[in-house]
Amino acid sequence: MKRLLILSALSAALMTSGCITVIDADHEDDFGWHGENAQPFDGARAECRASTGEGPRSDAFRQCMAAKGWTRS
Length: 73
What we know:
Elements lengths: L1 H15 L2 E3 L11 E4 L4 H12 L6 H9 L2 E3 L1
Helix pairs in contact: 2-3
């Protein structure tokens, strides 16, 4: 029983360790972004806004964020 509990806790930790979700979004356009091995969200968002000159709803912004490891669901 003890082995099963340890194994299930370890497997749950491993399954969630590679994914990042933006939970504390400060703007409605910040919700729904997910990243795996991604750059920090705030920095990636600022760089993409500066380089594209557009907001999160544009294709150029989404492509920039994808290059930094972030996708939107």
